[in-house]
Amino acid sequence: MTFGRLPIFVWTILVTSFLAVFALPSLTTAGGLLLLDRQVGTHFFNVAQGGSALLWQHLFWFFGHPEVYILILPAMGIISEIIPVFSRQPIFGYKAIVLSAIAIGILGFTVWAHHMFATGMPNATLAVFSADSFLIGVPTGIKIFSWLGTMWGGKLRFKTPMLFAVGFVALFLVGGLDGIHLAVIPVDWQVTDSYYVVAHIHYVLFGGAIFGLFGAMYYWFPKMTGRMMSEGLGKWNFWLMFIGMNLVFMPMHVLGLLGMPRRIYTYGDNLGWGIWNLVETIGAFILALGILLFVINFFVSLRRPATNEADPWDAFTLEWKTSSPPAAYNFAEIPTVRSLRPLWDEKHPDLADWRVGE
Amino acid sequence: MTGQAIVGRPNADGRGRTALALVVAAESVFFGTLILSVLFLRASQTGWPFSHPSLPQLVVPSVNTLILILSGVAAWGSERAIQAGRDRLLKLGLVLTLVLGLVFIAGQVFEFTRSGMHPSDQAFGGVFFALMGFHALHLLAGMVVLVINLARAGLGDYTPSRHETISLGAWFWYFVVAVWLVLFAALFLV
Amino acid sequence: MTSEAWAQSHPNASATEKSGILGWVMTVDHKRIGIMYIITAFLFFLVGGTFALLMRLQLAQPNGRVLSNATYNEIFTMHGTTMIFLVVMPLAAGFGNYLVPLMIGARDMAFPKLNALGYWVFLFGGTFLYSSFAFGGAPDTGWFSYAPLTEKPFSITHAMDFWALAILLLGLARQPAPSISSSPSCS
Predict the structure, then answer these.
(1) Cβ contacts of A322 on chain C, cutoff 8 Å
(2) How many A-B residue pairs are in contact by the CB < 8 A criterion?
(3) CA A281 – CA A286 distance, rounded (Å)
């Protein structure tokens, strides 16, 4: 195994780990100083005594922005594992995806003040952070092209993990575009702290991270338990979540543009917001029903007799070489890896990836 | 690359050093954000309520800094000692590092109380308190490691070819000393 | 190294985990730790999701009366804090724990005990945060807790101290564990 043959999920976990090492200490500082202010009586964030409220925002968002990449990168890695297997093709643009993950990690540290556009920072600062926030859309776009390129011309099997993976691509795209809108300063000034932002974060975090993680649960459940999850329930689960999710969060774009602020506990009945909120609540319960189906699916599937199939999806990476579930020691003999798809190589020695170009 | 540890030599594949490097990276960001917070507060005030300490007032902190540097030298000495197989010098070095570290902390407490500052004195008192306090906490953590190392040295655990945790403990100590040098500059000289 | 040579140099190693609850509580096996992360995180997901449903019920109509203003503030703060720190991050940590050693052909993470400690600190931190409901109220200033709203004259209950301490615990101790554990095992 070399770095150039690591599965993309491993790469995204690696980048996420580095992001965590460098970003979380800023939160530690913020939290630590807050505790000192509250318990010891220091004045870090207390303007009247020489502190600065803006300091909290800088410290928090210096952590907060890399944090959102910590939240999304593993899910991007997950679907980079699922899509090739269910398209029967190797990932399109391995180097591009890896380099874009690293780029997102590094650039992620340079855009934090885009959470603070409305705080009165000087124009030059605003311009720099706005430009950088546009820039960070590029590596993400590269990834979307890679995933689509992987599917192009492939033999697609739309099992439940693949449904969640494709759902991720569509929903994350919407959320990502929302983010680009917010990078435009005048737009941000209009919709900051409104439901437009809530729409954005939920499309990327729910449609993105959570959908990716649900895909992971369906995909790796057989490996962890030796049984498959029900496909029928899985499809119902997916579609209820997908429809519910869009019903909840799409109207929030409208509400944001209509001026509904976030974090308000109620609103008047003369604003025209009622109908959208009602639709969203209905959507939320549809979404909840979908999640309930997942829980049911989980328990129903656990009660099935174990088939202990090592490689039920006909996959490419090493974890599918072990038994389902794997032995405590994982591998009796450490395997030798000659390409990106070691299991494919083993199952198809004549078509092995490392033979390509021979 | 096969992901196996070499049996019988737990740190031979350098994983301890990688781990320490990551810890040092994270703590550097922590202290970095602390220092930047101080500079930010300074830049956002029209009159930072504090002028450079004049030379006599710098005496105690400077002496204290020298003591801490000496403790770093003692840590280095302990590492060299075990590399040469001198077990008693190893223990002496560790004890000296610990003692000098304790003297440093005592000096910090003395300096802070003598100055009459209080953490709730405007932003500056809090700054001083926080910076010195967090640094002292890291020093204490380093001392816990040194004490464990000392106990293991007492049990004869270390040999010239096998003393990884001595090196790791020493490197963490150098890091904490280096952080103090930066803090000293940020608090007293800039 | 072949499995025979490995078995010879580890005469006390067993090929299976201890059975029963104790086996899970004492495990340092990355697969079990991964599963514990995933299950615990999913339970927090259901709690955070319930909070979301409560919010949606409150907002379904104008002048809603499902939640009071103070409770609503606690609910949206805990919803955000839970989903970010107690759901998505641990779910990713769980899958990372389970899969990374398997995907690279390794036997476990680089620091199995530190890895296990990471899970228990997560569980403790999450429980600690939620205990605030029982001790004078949950944090209610949003998941990014802007100062000075979070400072003493404006937030007098202990809620913010619970938030700050929980965040410190979850960040400080959980972050080195997965990151330190995963990187070296690639070598």
Answers:
(1) 102
(2) 87
(3) 9
